[in-house]
Amino acid sequence: MVSRDNFEQAASAIAQLNRDQLTSNIKNFQGRFKLDFSANYLANQSDDRLRHILLAAVMTKKHN
Fold first, then answer.
1. Span 9-52, pLDDT tens digits
2. 3-state DSSP assignment of residue 9
3. How many C-beta neighbours within 10 Å does residue 24 have?
4. For residue 61, which of 22, 35, 23, 24 has the smallest C-alpha distance?
5. Could you give the C-alpha distances from 56 to 19, 22, in angstroms and in order?
């Protein structure tokens, strides 16, 4: 399980990203699996939804 400190650090860092940074991080995510979202899909998501997607991916990566 991911530690509370790791979660809080990741959540805090992701919360500070702007929309362009969120989208870039999602498109370029390097983890156990590829995130394959179309540009159109990402453009139609709220910033909070993009943060949720990125945080979930990062937490999965830290779990390895």
1. 999 999 999 999 999 999 999 988 889 999 999 999 999 999 99
2. helix
3. 13
4. 35
5. 17, 13
- Count Cα atoms within 13 angstroms, Cβ side, for 27: 12
Q: How far apart are CA 64 and CA 62, in angstroms?
A: 5
d(CA 20, CA 37): 15
Would you kindly state where each structural domain of the chain is located, as residue ranges?
4-62
Burial class of residue 28 (count of CB atoms within 10 Å of its CB; 0-12, 13-18, 19+): exposed
Note the Cα 12 to chain centre separation in Å.
Answer: 12
- Give the model's pLDDT for residue 3: 77
